[in-house]
């Protein structure tokens, strides 16, 4: 059934249809999906979050004077994050996710320094949310190459990239792709000397690194306690295990936090003041994040962090025993990237083989010195699944090697590079996808050929094709 029904439908029928629609979705529990979802393995925590989300579902965060509960909940969450990451400050904002937290940090830095062409200097491993922020905010991203072995940015490279137009310097703790931490203290010192704010993107690691440190691991300083760090983002729906979308951005200076806000009173309606990019937004994610924090407590997070990191270390050790595979860099958080050194073993084919066995290993395309690889996010639930994960990785590697890598015709890559995408409508592009074997109608799509084709294209062509693919997907042409 499509569109709006003439008459309302029974609730049981609606819920039944939702369940059918979700049959082909990846599972959000159990540990077989190594990206996108974060599972504690503790059903009672997820139940508490779901009930709190429902309680706050219709509360509108647009006006905190109308709904004071959102102020109380946000203060508690921000204070809790600041206690571990704030370096003595609790000046922060609850947002819908890492991208919005980053957007606000970039906006605040732009508004703090008036230059004609504001620039953000960031490692090439920085999350694309920074590229999105500068695109939306009319700024420029200066991308700095990282070390080809460690995948960390060098302080010297950051220094060389600074210009009079630099308004923000970025480092990751850790980077999503490889799980390694940039030299935060060194880069922050360089930024401070230049009079430029420094943002630490700890969206993925901000709520696991402090607990690893409390568990006795050697975690380098990375938060607002570091001189020169002026803001930090930390997602609560990642290693905070809250439902999507929940994140916090902290500022060392409350004046910088105010620059992230937006106010408008120059119209005949109600005065508008927004702490986030969004205006009206449900209080559900806020309530769910608060409930998750309260249900787990510090001891729960310490335990989950230990379990996740032990799983990551077991995965790293296990990968070393699988012929042709190796780990990229030296992960300092439960994020592991696995590549192939065997020309006959394609990680793209391996991912498809794993999918056919009930596992989802996230594909990462080559970029710079980082070869194509598979990304693994290890969580609390992974402790009981890592041996099965390794067995699947081993079996899938053998099957992928036997099948061989996808055979991408050189003329196809050349044709895609020269294709005028603006001259093709969605129906035509859907036909093009079908011609190269893209079939996404089933529960286990085969993506090896598609990923191999994408991996051989320039970044600009990849991005253009991704936009067209998304347009076709939502137009219903596939």
Automatic annotation (TrEMBL):
<comment type="similarity">
    <text>Belongs to the group II decarboxylase family. Sphingosine-1-phosphate lyase subfamily.</text>
</comment>
<dbReference type="InterPro" id="IPR050477">
    <property type="entry name" value="GrpII_AminoAcid_Decarb"/>
</dbReference>
<dbReference type="InterPro" id="IPR002129">
    <property type="entry name" value="PyrdxlP-dep_de-COase"/>
</dbReference>
<protein>
    <submittedName>
        <fullName>Aspartate aminotransferase family protein</fullName>
    </submittedName>
</protein>
<dbReference type="InterPro" id="IPR015421">
    <property type="entry name" value="PyrdxlP-dep_Trfase_major"/>
</dbReference>
<dbReference type="GO" id="GO:0030170">
    <property type="term" value="F:pyridoxal phosphate binding"/>
</dbReference>
<dbReference type="InterPro" id="IPR015424">
    <property type="entry name" value="PyrdxlP-dep_Trfase"/>
</dbReference>
<keyword id="KW-0808">Transferase</keyword>
<dbReference type="GO" id="GO:0008483">
    <property type="term" value="F:transaminase activity"/>
</dbReference>
<keyword id="KW-0456">Lyase</keyword>
<dbReference type="GO" id="GO:0019752">
    <property type="term" value="P:carboxylic acid metabolic process"/>
</dbReference>
<keyword id="KW-0032">Aminotransferase</keyword>
<keyword id="KW-0663">Pyridoxal phosphate</keyword>
<dbReference type="GO" id="GO:0004058">
    <property type="term" value="F:aromatic-L-amino-acid decarboxylase activity"/>
</dbReference>
<dbReference type="InterPro" id="IPR015422">
    <property type="entry name" value="PyrdxlP-dep_Trfase_small"/>
</dbReference>
<feature type="modified residue" description="N6-(pyridoxal phosphate)lysine">
    <location>
        <position position="238"/>
    </location>
</feature>
<dbReference type="Pfam" id="PF00282">
    <property type="entry name" value="Pyridoxal_deC"/>
</dbReference>
